[in-house]
Amino acid sequence: MAYKVAIDAGHGSNTSGKRTCKFTKTVKLSNGKVIKKGETYKEHEANVMVSDFLATELKRCGFAIYKSGWDDKDATDDADISLRTRQKRIKAANCDISISNHFNAFGSNWNSAQGIGTFIHSTNYRNSKKLATKVYAQLIKGTPQKGRGIKQQAFAMVNCTSLGVKAAILNEYAFMTNKHEAQELMADVDFCKECAVEVAKGVCNYFGVKYVAVGTSKPKKENKEKSSSKVSESAMVKALQTALNKDYKTGLTVDGKYGPKTKAGLAGHIIKNGSKTNSVKWLQTRLNELGYTDNNKKKLKVDGAFGSKTAAALKKMQKALGVTQDVKFGTATMAKMIKKY
Asked: Domain check: are 247 and 194 in the same one?
């Protein structure tokens, strides 16, 4: 019998307050939605986007799904079901675990509060610590963000007793009151999909189930590699642009395109030994993804600190790429990396 996961999309289509501040620019999402300058973006819409992607990911890995607070991709017609009713329905569905998807807020105006975090219940958490640890470990590997860690609160949607589950977590993927995180992450389809993939990997690790990546069974290796490389490049460049913006306020448009402005941003802020930045964290993540390890053949700790282990892994990659092994990540190494991978 397949493990059953409750996927909860927080709030409802017309829940009062749960939305961003007014956007300072027009944002066009790749799914066709347009949020005009001066408009707000409802949290539930982003919650449903993550939830729908997560359902797809988990189904492909063999899990059974129960939808809570949403029924399909259309997030405009969902009632705000009470927390008590959500609890009862999840319990009646006999789910093994529950995951509630949210975006955070601090106050009602744009401010500097930021980051990604996971919550479990303060008392009724059962095996939630294990689930939270597995999921958060994946989330923090993604787009560079402030890690807010795993915290305990008496939230209704993580009360394992009331939900009748072995483990329950609530993820806050970004702050909708942070201008950058709201307009560049929350309102980005790729970011929402990335979060869903990371949560799915964490869930698989929790249950000891193999994660099945999209396209695994597709024929024609050449076509598959060409397609996945393009997607990977866009996500990789977006993550770099985000890191450079955070570290140096470069003002880059987070569009996934390695154009003149992004090249100039990297050229002016080469990632090198002794640095402790989001850009280093980005590089460490990329080196791990490509299989470049330290001299002890161990994956790098993604901590943003460029030390001897990161230097060893970078040197290995530069050697494989045929570029100068100066242990500095700049435009030359970036260009070769994009071309090869």
From this structure: no
What residues contact residue 86 under an 8 Å CB cut-off, 6+ apart?
8, 68, 69, 156, 157
- Residues 222-232, mean pLDDT to the nearest whole number: 39
**Residue-level pLDDT at 214:** 82
Please report the pLDDT score of residue 160 as a whole number. 98
Q: Which domain holds residue 248?
A: 221-340
Do 277 and 199 belong together in one domain? no
* Alpha carbon distance 152, 190 (integer Å): 29
Confidence of residue 233 (pLDDT cuts 50, 70, 90): confident
68: β partners: 8
Query: Which of 256, 227, 224, 223 lies closest to 239, judged by CA?
Result: 256
Rounded to 5 degrees, what are φ and ψ at 126? 45, -115
Classified as helix, coil or strand, 172 is strand
- Whether 311 and 280 have beta carbons less than 8 Å apart is answered as no
Residue 216 is predicted with a pLDDT of 64
* Selection from 256, 99, 110 nearest residue 181 by Cα: 110
Kindly report which listed range (38-47, 74-83, 127-136, 314-323) carries the lowest average pLDDT score.
314-323
List C-alpha distances in Å: 306 to 142, 143, 162: 18, 18, 45
| CATH code of residue 325 | 1.10.101.10
Contact between residue 48 and residue 70 where contact means Cβ atoms under 8 Å apart: yes
Using the 3D structure, point to which of 180, 207, 234 is the last residue of a domain: 207
Q: Tens digit of pLDDT for each residue in 208-224?
A: 999 999 876 533 333 33
Indicate whether 191 and 314 sit together in one domain. no
Domain count, the chain: 2
| Same-domain check for residues 129 and 233 | no
Supply the CATH number for residue 203's domain.
3.40.630.40
| Interacting residues of 171 by C-beta distance below 8 A, sequence separation 6+ | 99, 100, 101, 102, 116, 117, 118, 119, 135, 139, 195, 199
Q: Please state the φ and ψ torsions of residue 97, each to the nearest 5 degrees.
A: -140, 165
Which pLDDT band holds residue 333 (cuts at 50, 70, 90)? very high
207, 235, 266: which is the final residue of a domain? 207
Same domain, 108 and 139: yes
